[in-house]
Amino acid sequence: MKSISILAFLFICALVGAKAQPIFVFENGLRFSSIEEEVATLKQLGYDGMGSAKLPNLAKRLPVYQKSGLRIFSIYVALKAQGETASYDPAILEAIQLLQGSNAIVELNIQGRSTVGDTAVVEKVREIGAAAEAAGLRVALYPHANFYVEKVGEAVRVAKAVDLENVGIMFNLCHFLRNEKLSDLDTVLAAAAPHLFQVSTCGADTDGTDWTTLIQPLDKGSFDQSILFDLLRKQGFDGPVGLQCYNIRGNSKEFLNSSIEAWKAMQAN
Hints:
Layout: H1 2-17, E1 23-26, H2 35-45, E2 49-51, H3 58-68, E3 71-72, E4 74-83, E5 85-88, H4 91-98, E6 105-114, H5 119-134, E7 138-141, H6 152-162, E8 167-172, H7 173-179, H8 185-192, E9 196-201, H9 211-214, H10 225-234, E10 241-243, H11 252-268
Parallel strand pairs: 1-2, 1-10, 2-3, 4-6, 6-7, 7-8, 8-9, 9-10
Antiparallel strand pairs: 4-5
Helix pairs in contact: 2-3, 5-6
């Protein structure tokens, strides 16, 4: 009886001491009248902050989030491949300096076409990666449908070629379902695991073909989220998770509330 009591005590201690996996909302889900209102709503609902932030309002958002105790988890920026060259907006480097020491992630999508393979792309990713490293930040290559890097394996390939410790990848459920086979998810995540910095999810239909069906509130859609998160846990991933909200219609507070309730239920299970 005593041994059972000790085991129960240890189990409870483990639960109490367990670190909750952080969840944040993509900027595209924050349709509020002011930054102050969005911060207050996120805090009330139980989110840890926002992410996939666009650069124009970053300087205004940052002090409001810092004051509230919420985080800006990531910024969303682009690199463009153009024939033999690749380029990016210098504002990315300014944003990296602004976020110095915040442990934020630079979500970097790679667009366009290259006539020299990954050579020019890798050079520019290294530049961004070096600037991020100096600021204490990481860069996650963001696979996006119909872009130069659109599949998880392509992001892994480029990250390996860049060969910087602070340059890895991001897994995005909606883009994976759009571009790849669900039956390959285990294999894809196993290959991605050593490079995986961040994940985004949303409600989705397993057989969805457009963003209306592939991006829904987290409590909607036929895709079983436990499939994804069981595999992520199997690979040891416990990093931040972003809620993709692109093109979700309706009141932001309502779909963010139903989504966080679904998230809490998932975590409890």
